[in-house]
Amino acid sequence: MSVLEIKSLTHTYTDGSPFINDAVSDVSFSVEKGEIIGIIGHTGSGKSTLVQHLNGLLKPTNGEILFEGENIWQKPKEIRKIRSKVGLVFQYPEYQLFEETVFADIAFGPKNMGLSGDELTRQVEEICRLIGIKEEYYSKSPFDLSGGEKRRVAIAGVMAMKPEVIIFDEPTAGLDPKGREEITEIIKAYRKSTGATVIIISHSMEDMAEIADKILVMNKGKLEMFDKTDKVFGEGSRLKEIGLNVPTVTKVFQKLNEMGIDVEKDVFTVSKAVEILTELKGRDNNA
Amino acid sequence: MDNIIEIKNATYSYTDEGISHIALNNISLSIKKGSFTVILGHNGSGKSTLAKLLNGLNTPSSGDIIVDGMNTRDEEKELEIKRKVGLVFQNPDNQLIASIVEEDVAFGPENLGLEPQKIRECVDEALKSVGMYEFRKSTPHKLSGGQKQRIAIAGIIAMSPDVLVLDEPTAMLDPKGRAEIISTLHFLNKEKNITVVLITHYMEEAENADRVIVMNDGEIINDGKPEDIFQNVKQLKEVGLDVPQTTELLYALKQIGFKVNTKALSIEDTAKEIAKALKL
Amino acid sequence: MLKDITIGQYYEGKSLLHRADPRMKIIWLIALIVLIFLAQNMYALSFAAISVIISLIISRVPLKMYLKNMKTILPILLFTAIINLFYGEGEVLFSIWKISITDGGVYRSVFMALRILLFILISSVLTYTTTPNDLTDAIESLLSPLKFIGLKTAVHTLAMMMTITLRFIPTLIEEAEKIMNAQKARGADLESGGLTKRVKALIPILVPLLISAVRRSYELAAAMECRCYNGGEGKTRMKKMRLSLIDLFLSLACIIIGAGIITLNILF
Question: Is residue B9 part of a domain?
Fold first, then answer.
């Protein structure tokens, strides 16, 4: 059974609000347990609206969201429960920190879920260990940390609820390369230890190529493509048509193709590229 | 005079809770008039501190910053230096003052005390040069991040500066907004002859610069043409930076015996290098 | 929802009212509000209503923009109307239990509601036809006589504060919504519980919002300094406010409205 099933989800903003113009129309797909899904699309393509439905922050205008086979809006009063099962880390999550200590801030989510006492402490500590927040940080004020550290604490605040599905809206935005790598590492660590399903919205095709099993492409509120990563990046021209990019390596390979060298077009990581070119060179040399 | 900015042995330190930190350690550097310089460095490498010294927003703890012959310590020259060296920050939302685009752009020239007619000309020209003239009557919060950042740039351009210093102007933008900003900067550099100093940690943004400076722990650790700087893949990775994916690919290929020139940066040149190496 | 609040809602246009001097517009607004308040009977108030409607028409702002404004103040309007229904004397129209509605009450109810409606409409005319910056500039200019008693910086600072507030209201509203959603995603319960619980539930929203506002203000101050802001010393304006024939014409109209209302007050 799919962990999440989205059935003809439509969301329209009726109030003509100037802030969000991010409707979603008739989107259907399903996510299997343990997958890493990348969502790409322009600003305003409906990505953010889409993911806010998955944990019940927004209610569909039409269609339904099934979590482990059950409609999440079946009992509207219990919608808060779904938020611990489907965690959502917003863009720039460090701006939501508010507690006096790092520990208390990370504990906010699990406390809202009803945990207390030893159980709460254990769950918070477990997450901190997993993603490398050292004990000496527990009693520090989150506002005294560096940008990258704050982001890590904020992400821990969602992970501490132990969600089975965890969604990240541009988790590496604004960070330097080292900071980006660190965040990618903690996402991988969480998935490895919990087996959770991961959904990431990102603008970086290179990052997506590294981490995602499948890519979902949103365009003007519609689902444009949803397939294995190599298949999606193999459709360079289609992505280009809707104004999206492919990883730089993929572009190089497309260029090689144009130059008459017969290589696959769906190469999207440096390691894969090196592998293919080495093989090709060996063949040429032997010939 | 060829150099518009000269930094002479500048050190900047500050104390936080009794502990003294050195953000910049004895930096000397000259920026040539009309050049396009990119400063790379991870967060906390001192690059933002450097930006704030260039227009006198902060003064160095020791050493001097000379802008077009004027020392930023000279209080009488304060406004003149700020006019000549415009500074744009990361978050466009926190730089815009007025609720109407053209009124915001007029803020700088109004502070300079220009005549209304002259302000109008400066504002219109600045908006045209960043491609936002048609939005002059809009309100900033209805624009995209890239558009807002271009308004922030126009607000500086309207004061007719010689140098435009930008502190991570693209960090909060999506790829489209980022591309808009970078092409705007190259346009201003080439067509309006404005010296650009771009501080960033996106390597791709350095590809077309005249000069790249790499900073780490408050010091300059490398300085040169982009294609030369990116040769130091190991050094860059050690200081928490990266190289463009094209360089990474060529570098990896070279290590396993491909005869490629790792200086190629563009997609096309990279593909050509690979093709050449394959045919050998 | 929070985002329904709109302040400083300029509607672009080229009507007579858009082109009029913002300082004069503020004076007219004050004059008209006083006049509407002075209108003592239905005839005078109807005359004021017609004048307001004419203003709406010459503002060339679509009617639906004004109606949108009405929607937000509808509760206040209804409240005023209902409260006033029970005051007033005269012939009893009908009574329920101990409460009776009189024709005087109905009259009063309609009269008061209409008065508030006119206040709001005429104020909307000003905000729709004047950019927030023009408005603050005009206030600064109108208050400028205060500089003779040594309050020059105070006047400029006040105007600057208004400009910045208007600019940041939408930004902060948007931010408040984002923080609210982020805390909800962490299981925060903002909707249930008693008053104390609800107030406590606001802390996770207010603290980040406040911290963000402080951070923004630091960055804004640096940005303003970089744009040669010097406390308003020697500052000029791109748009010079100048009185024109339009202002003369509209002032005459204002006087006619005033004379009309006063005459009707006396006549009936």
Answer: no
Categorise residue A239: left if φ over 0, alpha if ψ from -120 to 50, beta otherwise: alpha
Residue B268 · residue A255 · CB < 8 Å? yes
Q: B253 is in which domain, residue-wise?
A: 244-280
Specify the amino acid at residue C132. P
Q: Is C188 on the interface with B (CB under 8 A)?
A: no
Is position B87 within any domain? yes
B142 and B272 part of one domain:
no
C-alpha dihedral sign at C51, C57, C60, C62: positive
**Distance separating alpha carbons of residues B64 and B73, to the nearest angstrom:** 8
The CA distance from B39 to B260, in Å, is: 27
In chain B, the number of structural domains is 2
* Sheet containing strand B163-167, strands side by side: B85-88, B163-167, B195-200, B36-40, B211-216, B219-224
In a domain, B2, yes or no: no
Question: What is the pLDDT tens value at each position of chain A, 287 positions in all?
Answer: 799 999 999 998 765 444 446 789 999 999 999 999 999 998 888 999 999 999 999 999 999 999 999 999 998 888 889 999 999 999 999 999 999 999 999 999 999 999 999 999 999 999 999 999 999 999 999 999 988 899 999 999 999 999 999 999 999 998 888 888 899 999 999 999 999 999 999 998 888 888 999 999 999 999 999 999 989 988 888 888 888 888 889 889 988 988 888 888 788 889 889 988 988 887 766 55
Q: pTM here?
A: 0.86
CA–CA gap between residue C26 and residue C32 (Å, rounded): 10
Nearest C-alpha in C relative to A156: C186
For tokens 């132990």, name the residue.
A162
Of B57, B102, B116, the CB nearest to C226: B57
Superfamily of structural domain A4-234: P-loop containing nucleotide triphosphate hydrolases (3.40.50.300)
Edge-first strand listing for the sheet containing A4-11 = A24-31, A4-11, A62-67, A70-71
Low-confidence ranges of chain C (pLDDT < 70): 1-8
HSE on the CB side for B11, CA within 13 Å? Answer: 9
Domain boundaries, chain A: 4-234, 247-287
Lookup: tokens for C251: 């002032």
Q: How many residues does chain B have?
A: 280
Read off the tokens for B43: 């967060």
Residues B93 and B159 in one domain: yes
User: Do residues B20 and B13 make contact, with C-beta atoms less than 8 angstroms apart?
Assistant: yes
Shared-domain flag, residues B120 and B215: yes
Question: Are residues B211 and B263 both part of a single domain?
Answer: no
Q: Residue B144 in contact with residue B35, Cβ under 8 Å?
A: no
What's B180's domain CATH number?
Answer: 3.40.50.300
Query: Which of C3, C174, C185 is nearest residue A57 as measured by Cβ atoms?
Result: C185
SS3 B247: helix
Residues 107-166 of B with CB under 8 A from C: 107-116, 119-120, 123, 137, 139-141, 152, 155-156, 159
Q: Are residues B203 and B267 in the same domain?
A: no
pLDDT at A17: 47
- Measuring CA to CA, how many Å separate C207 from each of A95, A153, C79, C179? 10, 17, 34, 10
B78 shares its domain with B204: yes
Distance between alpha carbon B204 and the CA centroid of its chain, in Å? 13
Q: How far, CA to CA in Å, does C21 sit from each of A72, C134, C243? A: 57, 9, 6
Q: Are residues B206 and B268 in the same domain?
A: no
What is the C-alpha to C-alpha distance for residues B121 and A196, in angstroms, rounded to an integer? 58
Please tell me the distance from the alpha carbon of residue A157 to that of residue A108, in angstroms, as a whole number: 7
Structure tokens at A241: 């048509």
- Which residues of chain A does C185 touch, with a Cβ-Cβ cutoff of 8 Å? 55, 57, 83, 87-90, 158
Q: Tell me, yes or no, if C184 comes closer than 8 A to chain A by beta carbon.
A: yes
Within-domain flag for B13:
no
